[in-house]
Amino acid sequence: MEFLTGVREKETVEIRTILEGSYVGRSVTLNGAVHNIRHMGEVAFVILRKADGLVQCVYEKGKADLDIKELKEESAVEVTGTVAREERAPHGFEIRLEAVKVLSAPEEVLPIAVSKYKMHTSLEARLALRPVSLRNVGERAKFKIQEGIVRGFRDFLHSQGFTEIHTPKIVSRGAEGGSNVFRLDYFNKKAELGQSPQFYKQTMVGVYDRVFEVAPVFRAEKHNTTRHLNEYVGLDFEMGYIDGFEDVMAMETGFLQYTMELLAREYRKELEILEVKLPDVGRIPAVRFDRAKELAAERYDRRIKNPYDLEPEEEILIGRYFKEEYDSDFVFVTHYPSRKRPFYAMDDPADSKFTLSFDLLFRGMEVTTGGQRIHDYRELLAKMERRNMDPDDISSYLMIFKYGMPPHGGLGIGLERLTMRLLDESNVREASLFPRDVTRLVP
Fold first, then answer.
1. What is the largest CA-CA distance in the chain?
2. What is the rounded distance in angstroms from the CA atom of residue 140 to the CA atom of residue 32?
3. If you average pLDDT over residues 16-25, what whole number do you get?
């Protein structure tokens, strides 16, 4: 009988192992995919692709146990060879090949040249061939940086006393209401895919005080634009015992500061590949909604068309204004009109036409919505009555306020939009591994 006692030690090494140890002149074995083969007569350069980067291997005829003509790009291989210093190679070393074992070989030639730095193919082609196009170095770098954003979110909030939760995505009623929901037949009951974890994260504030979640969010909006997806990843948090919605904005600022430092420290290689310049988040300006509209209208000679919401063009102009005036890529826009915010948003005591809420714009695009919530049961019922809402429809949500809740607030960040703006991409689909929009359900 065999017993497992933990992770098995492997004979193969990784890039980081070679970089951290004294391996020059030593024989090593490592595995990977053949990313590219460059034939140079009697010598060939075989570039292996591994999770943490590329490795240059040198094939010399007669010194390795494989005819290079038998090796195909995208084959999975295990190679053995001697480590040698080579400043021109990735990571500053190369492997002089002695043995090559082919673990698997592709059936067909790749439909796109993923080994090139830029594939020079359309976004639609890259999305249709996503399982292949993601092997490109540039594409891989995007999603490593996205990993860093999520890692920063989790690490920072854990350091601030938050508890990670996991809420259901099959719900009886969406938190935002309206018609933009995906409806389901749930064992002969009406159900929906969750538009937001809002009700559940508020519930959990009454349990843990501070909570967060990283999870998919579903919106059945028939938008086919460069900024909308029908399924995206939400970075959500909710925090209790706040003094005001400014506490929520301050917490997000802290998350951004922590995350940019993390990216600069541990994702430098990916940032360099994509030529990303991280934004300065030392201080983020905040401006009232109505004043932001006025500033954009005055500076750029634009008539205010919609007094209750920001149009995409206005977001761009407000972002430009604060970049020009304060050299800030971010700006908090606060005190949104009540008629454009959900019923649970707390109205401003000084003027009930506005709410204690905000959006965060990043380089001219909204990436966050948040604010203070109503925590008083009677106040919540009164606002629902003014909106002709039936309390019986959300009785389980109202239960948490009936038995007492602290002052609280929170936010939701769109991961793909945040990634898109950070990478300076023009389409949010660039920042989604397998985007779901009005036309795309595969791959």
1. 84
2. 15
3. 92
What backbone torsions phi and psi does residue 19 show, to the nearest 5 degrees?
Answer: -70, -30
- Say how far apart CA 295 and CA 380 lie, in whole Å: 34
User: What distance in Å separates the CA atoms of residue 31 and residue 22, rounded to the nearest whole number?
Assistant: 19
Angle ∠(313,317,323) on CA atoms, nearest 5? 145
Alpha carbons 376 and 393: distance in angstroms, whole number: 18
Tell me the CA distances in angstroms from 16 to 13, 24, 30, 251, 418, one per residue in order: 8, 14, 12, 34, 29
376 touches 209 (CB < 8 A): no
**Which class for 84: exposed (0-12), middle (13-18), buried (19 or more C-beta within 10 A)?**
middle
Q: What is the DSSP letter of 281?
A: -
Which tens digits make up the pLDDT trace of 277-306? 999 999 999 999 999 999 999 999 999 999
Q: What is the pTM of this model?
A: 0.95
What's the Cα-to-Cα distance from 351 to each of 48, 154, 346, 387, 399, rounded to whole Å? 63, 36, 11, 18, 28
Rounded to 5 degrees, φ, ψ at 91 are 70, 0
Residue 346's SS3 state is coil
Cα three-residue angle 344-287-234, rounded to 5 degrees: 50
The one-letter code for the residue type at 421 is R
Report long-range pairs for 364-367 (Cβ below 8 Å, ≥24 apart).
364/315, 364/316, 364/317, 364/318, 364/319, 364/320, 365/227, 365/312, 365/315, 365/316, 365/319, 365/417, 365/420, 365/421, 366/310, 366/315, 366/417, 367/413, 367/414, 367/417, 367/418, 367/421
